């Protein structure tokens, strides 16, 4: 698992790249094991429900799992998500962020908040408490930061 202060690897996220996205906003990058499962659905819905507040605080949200992109697209549509979910069936993004379970290869439930300086600001892992990931991102967003708008 990467730690706060580490430089975030530049990875492709859909039609964009992480470092290019960081030129405009901080990024909440959350990894989840598998689309259409109860815990992952709770987590994605939690980020959906807080998405407007996170955007207002200058952040983008992106979810990643080992599912194929077609599955991610169906999952996002079924939940009415306004943020992208990225499929990583080859595991390159999960490897870069050190979140892959050994042997089974699924993503460990991990959330990173990445600053515009490309540094990890928050690194959090909890397999069982999916909504704690949303709460951690929300708490980070609520703290005023130089050069970043805070919530009003």
Descriptive notes:
With about 150 residues, this protein is of the alpha/beta class. The protein has one domain (about 35-140): Glutaredoxin (3-Layer(aba) Sandwich). It is built from five helices and seven strands. It has helices spanning about 20, 40-55, 70-80, 90-95, 130-140; strands spanning about 10-15, 15, 25-30, 60-65, 85, 110-115, 120-125. It has a five-stranded mixed sheet. Strands 1-2 form a two-stranded antiparallel sheet. Helix 2 (about 40-55) links the parallel strand 3 and strand 4. The longest helix is centred in the N-terminal third of the chain and has 19 residues, at about 40-55. It is globular. The relative contact order is 0.23. The mean pLDDT is about 90.
Major beta-sheet overview: 5 strands, mixed
Q: Structural class, judged by helices and strands?
A: alpha/beta
| Radius of gyration of CA atoms, rounded to a whole number | 14 Å
Distance N to C terminus: 33 Å
User: Would you tell me which CATH topology applies?
Assistant: Glutaredoxin
Relevant terms:
two-stranded antiparallel ribbon, 34% helix, 5 helices, globular, single chain, 20% strand, 152 residues, alpha/beta, 7 strands, Glutaredoxin, five-stranded mixed beta sheet
Task: Give a short overview.
Helix 3 links the parallel strand 4 and strand 5. The protein has five helices and seven strands; from the N terminus they run ββαβαβαβαββα.
List the helices and strands and how they pair.
Layout lengths: L11 E2 L2 E2 H4 L4 E6 L6 H19 L2 E7 L3 H11 L5 E3 L4 H5 L13 E5 L5 E6 L4 H13 L10
Parallel strand pairs: 3-4, 4-5
Antiparallel strand pairs: 1-2, 3-6, 6-7
């Amino acid at each position: 698992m990467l730690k706060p202060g580490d430089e975030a690897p530049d990875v492709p996220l859909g039609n964009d790249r992480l470092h290019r996205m960081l030129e405009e906003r901080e990024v909440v990058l959350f990894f989840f094991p598998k689309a259409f499962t109860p815990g992952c659905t709770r987590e994605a819905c939690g980020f959906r429900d807080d998405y407007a507040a996170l955007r207002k605080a200058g952040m983008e949200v992106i979810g990643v799992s080992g599912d194929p992109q077609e599955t991610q697209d169906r999952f996002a549509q079924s939940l009415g998500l306004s943020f992208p979910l990225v499929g990583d069936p080859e595991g390159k993004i999960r490897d870069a962020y050190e979140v892959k379970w050994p042997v089974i290869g699924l993503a460990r439930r991990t959330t990173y908040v990445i600053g515009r300086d490309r540094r990890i600001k928050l690194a959090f892992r909890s397999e069982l408490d999916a909504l704690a990931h949303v709460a951690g991102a929300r708490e980070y967003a609520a703290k005023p930061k130089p050069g970043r708008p805070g919530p009003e």
